[in-house]
Amino acid sequence: MNPAARSALIQAAGAENFSDGQEDRLLYSYDATGKSYPPEAVVRGVEVEQIARVLAAASQHRVPVVPRGAGSGQSGGSLPVDGGLVLNLAGMDRILKVDPADHVAVVQPGVITADLQRAAEARGLFYPPDPASVEFCTVGGNAAENSGGLRAVKYGVTRDYVLALQAVLPDGRVLRTGRSTMKTVVGYDLTRLLVGSEGTLAVMTELTLRLLPKPEAKATVSALFHELETAAQAVQAVLMSGITPAALEFIDSQSLGAVNAHAGLGLPPEAEAMVLIDVDGAPEVVAGQARRLARVLEEGGGRQVRLALDPAEAAELWRARRSMGPAMYNLAPNKLNEDVVVPLGRLAQAIRAIHAIGQRRGVLIPTFGHAGDGNLHVNVMYDASDPEQNRQAHQAVTDVFAQVLKVGGSLSGEHGVGNAKLGYVGAELDPVAMELMRGIKRLFDPAGILNPHKAVPTPDILA
Amino acid sequence: MNPAARSALIQAAGAENFSDGQEDRLLYSYDATGKSYPPEAVVRGVEVEQIARVLAAASQHRVPVVPRGAGSGQSGGSLPVDGGLVLNLAGMDRILKVDPADHVAVVQPGVITADLQRAAEARGLFYPPDPASVEFCTVGGNAAENSGGLRAVKYGVTRDYVLALQAVLPDGRVLRTGRSTMKTVVGYDLTRLLVGSEGTLAVMTELTLRLLPKPEAKATVSALFHELETAAQAVQAVLMSGITPAALEFIDSQSLGAVNAHAGLGLPPEAEAMVLIDVDGAPEVVAGQARRLARVLEEGGGRQVRLALDPAEAAELWRARRSMGPAMYNLAPNKLNEDVVVPLGRLAQAIRAIHAIGQRRGVLIPTFGHAGDGNLHVNVMYDASDPEQNRQAHQAVTDVFAQVLKVGGSLSGEHGVGNAKLGYVGAELDPVAMELMRGIKRLFDPAGILNPHKAVPTPDILA
């Protein structure tokens, strides 16, 4: 970083919030993808006016700025791929308000999602988005990536809970979008344009979130299936039952094999799929709903259909799903983890095609995920130390993407594009739509400093 | 219209789809607001390539284009306030697909919303958005205005059901946004930027919509309250019950008075509010949920709590709410109808303040609406032939808007800004956000031909 830029940034940030020491540069070079791009410096964001000053200085000196929450993203969204500045927002972690009458919370971006959930629950309320990283990811990061989670099938994704934002533009202007109301149709929907924009348009400094009443009770149902197609049909039957499950998960044979070996679940080897369902709501109705869905699964060919009405039994049924992460590494030492989405009716077809790709490429591709919204976690397992397997594994990912697009699916349901999928999104996005996206990027960030080379390919990348 | 523009438009549209006859110019000068702005010509949209040609010609000749569905909007969104061309999309009314496996429908913009609902129901599916005009409004108009309705409290608004769009830009380029999947986080969310943009950014030519499973059963609960504040507290208790109602409506004393006189409902004159609730879902659970909510209302001070488990009884309970439109005119011959939103906890306070404004201005302001999401329909009743009352009534609307903004509310929850509220939105929107909105408008519509003077104030209006 040139000395003029460095001294402007130190002045803008406050010296105590600026570091370009070796340690910080290493620490903030990583995210959950395991890749490393050392930034030139790290600034700790402490309040909106300071962030405005930092961004204005960075714009003036053309220093890239990468906003960062917990760095738990799965698509490299917080990697400083162009160097520059990491703007660390993890310290802005105050829950400013939980209002039970208005059903809203106002929080800073660095609040850990699970902390918000607990604060809401203490007032009888509920913040539904629940990415797997809920205990360490931040609300700001969730909003930047539009994160989902298990409960999306019933409750939607982060976008559906962000009512209003305070954010800072790259030139230092502060803006407010939305209202603290459940509805508004005044003006263009900038709130939902910023949600999911992966920190490329503005830096969120305050979020107003919708809260729901807390469901009082929960029940879980699980079933095994001897045939993938039967399981997919049972998923459709559950969706058509008139009861909306709070989670509707699907685990394929390869994932079951891995988790069976890892956690000793004693599952029958002939099982081709497991379906896991949560229902939640008022105590009087939850047990009846769970029994009805158990019947739907049984009538749909489910074996070993099990029902859990208390938390301990439910945890037991969820053990297979929860052990999935570590269990995968029983199959191979390395993993390429993609979260594609297919139309709801294409579940079985997509998984069969993914397995065929694995066979062709000589790798296992255990696949599980949110059957209720067609969002599949595809895990290409391989040994990176074997150059040929390495090549085949990466080729398998490209094959999976091609297959997903062929059936009308999308390359990401909840992880985002980041830099990981940037080279692929041109195959999904309409060229005119992409031109408009680039125009929006230029409108918000004419200097192009904010999280460059993320979310939307810019012409120099396409070239 | 100058002859060159006229002949270019005729060539683009096809002569059989172009009219500048007196009758058509009168017919398409109106919408549901009752205001009249005659366009210079009307073009019948028939397919995407023709619309692309028409828009390109209009851009070239700087002719304003106002897309129009059924003209049932409440904010003047389809009024050709600058003259130019009305682009009538009502004839593009084909339901192209209802897919029960993928849970999506693909429709043209001119499809009547209730027709889509019936087509979905015939396949066991459900399209939730239900504006009061559902039997004559169009899906394209609903998407342009991001319409809501009674069921928004449980099911959300039109925005939550639009998965993907085909649309034409003012320069004639065709774009596709979104995917036919329940989730996607690839690229900026242009779909939700276009939804609610009131036809000012692009003309929607095809919509891919999310469908839900059809709830099999429904039940209704109603209660009267002798005090507004008690009723508002009961609404909060319902929202916190763990059961999400499919409708949660509120009717104030002045509305009850009007409807009582009009429909002879025999309501006790001391009633200050009525609360009406629908629950829907699986048959086994709906009756239990309705009974539980009846208990919640009773324990919250509700009188004459009634429960209806069959459609005929339910219709009887809904009679007061459904008679509201015509009943209002028992109070005065003219109505200014505004759909403001307040934070959920401000319901009683807002209605008290609105009544006080009415008293001060010498007009009745019956108020009812969607208590479950804070969206109130405020009806300023007055006699337009009395100049002083006319003035006071319009002043009352301004007072109501000021009051709504003071408690953190929004000037429109489902009707949109159109041209009706254009002069007011500067008081709600953040100035930096408004600048960005104007930038987005310029990006999509550099010639400024598409539905000018709607949704977002442009500098010449503010000046």
TrEMBL record, chains A, B:
InterPro entries: FAD-bd_oxidored_4_C, FAD-bd_PCMH, FAD-bd_PCMH-like_sf, FAD-bd_PCMH_sub1, FAD-bd_PCMH_sub2, FAD-linked_Oxase-like_C, FAD-linked_OxidoTrans_Type4, Oxid_FAD_bind_N. Residues 35-214 form the FAD-binding PCMH-type domain. The gene is glcD-1. The keyword Oxidoreductase applies. PROSITE patterns: FAD_PCMH. Keywords: FAD, Flavoprotein, Oxidoreductase. This is FAD-binding protein. GO terms for molecular function: FAD binding; oxidoreductase activity. Its cofactor is FAD. It comes from Desulfoferula mesophila. Belongs to the FAD-binding oxidoreductase/transferase type 4 family. The keyword Oxidoreductase applies. Gene3D superfamilies: 3.30.465.10, 3.30.70.2190, 3.30.70.2740, Uridine Diphospho-n-acetylenolpyruvylglucosamine Reductase, domain 2, Vanillyl-alcohol Oxidase, Chain A, domain 4.
